[in-house]
Design goal:
26% helix, elongated, 4-stranded antiparallel beta sheet
Length: 319
């Protein structure tokens, strides 16, 4: 059930369904907040906002129509891995996702939104979408133990709309700011007659590179201060990014408010790798997307995704 009256929905949808109203040499803005269709509101991104996590982020956006706030945190657990002969990367670690919405946020969301968001994030941060060089850093003991990182996404408020994009930003920022505790392998080395503990390649970096200590180790331990002085994951800049194209009359607009989402017939969710390769395409809503419009919309999404990737990486550079 919509929270907005038919007149409000009509007032919002009619201008967004057109290409603009020219007045002399100036085009009158189509949206109530004076934004152009393909522009974002001011998005506030904060990191290291939650204690007891390896990485965390909060993303907020607001305006006259409401306020949206999404939190994301990363926790890690070392698990035994099963190395198969067919899949040599099976022991490289993994990322799993959980999604929760506060009761106060559910009123402005579609009933199937949590399911769509969980499915999207799971696909986006799967081993097929994440760079192998990123996942390889999650190895603690080669072919034996690796980190499983869990990204927990919490939607606290949704009255400002565009929850999905903010959830993608929060999850990516939390993972990009993650610091893994430093570990050291325990086992018999082969550098001395009695076998050294650890060996010259001991430590987190030696394990990632597959040094002698990692090969011969049978267990591991956290270094002193490991939880507080963890090493930030490298290649975080290569994490995928995505956004939502909201469609009215086959015309897209970005960063929809809750009212604009009520008027939107269909949403096209598009995600890309750091190299600009398409990794996720998903349509949400009852409206249809014309076949001839699909590829132009994906190309347009790619353009704005590249800009979003650049802006986010610049913001996350010194966290």
């Amino acid at each position: 059930m919509s929270l907005f009256s038919p007149s409000e929905v009509s007032y919002t949808s009619v201008p967004l369904a057109s290409t603009g109203v020219p007045t002399g040499s100036v085009t009158v803005p189509l949206r109530a907040d004076a934004r152009e269709p393909l522009s974002y509101r001011d998005v506030v991104l904060e990191t290291s906002v939650s204690l007891g996590t390896l990485g965390s982020a909060k993303v907020t956006v607001g305006g006259p129509g409401g306020y949206t706030e999404v939190w994301a945190g990363v926790k890690g657990e070392v698990e035994n891995v099963e190395q198969s002969a067919e899949d040599a990367s099976a022991g490289a670690g993994k990322v799993v996702v959980s999604v929760e919405c506060a009761p106060t946020a559910l009123s402005t969301l579609r009933s199937d939104f949590p399911q769509h968001l969980s499915s999207l994030l799971t696909t986006l941060f799967s081993s097929s979408s994440l760079p192998p060089s990123f996942l390889s850093q999650l190895v603690v003991l080669p072919r034996s133990k690796s980190w499983t990182l869990t990204i927990s996404v919490l939607v606290l408020s949704s009255s400002g709309g565009n929850v999905l994009d903010l959830a993608l930003m929060a999850a990516r920022a939390a993972l990009a700011s993650t610091r893994l505790p430093a570990t050291r392998p325990i086992g018999l080395g082969d550098d001395g007659p009695g076998g050294d503990i650890g060996g010259k390649d001991a430590g987190f970096s030696g394990l990632v590179k597959g040094g002698k200590a990692g090969v011969n180790a049978v267990d591991f331990e956290l270094l002193d201060g490991g939880w507080d002085e963890g090493e930030r994951l490298e290649r975080w800049e290569d994490l995928p990014v995505g956004l939502t194209l909201n469609l009215i009359n086959q015309l897209p607009h970005l960063d929809a408010t809750a009212l604009e989402e009520s008027a939107t017939a269909s949403q096209l969710i598009v995600c890309f790798t750091c190299k600009g390769e398409l990794c996720v395409v998903k349509q949400v809503g009852e409206g249809e997307i014309e076949l001839g419009r699909l590829m132009p919309l994906i190309r347009e999404a790619g353009k704005y995704s590249a800009e979003l990737l650049q802006v986010m990486n610049s913001k996350l550079q010194d966290v």
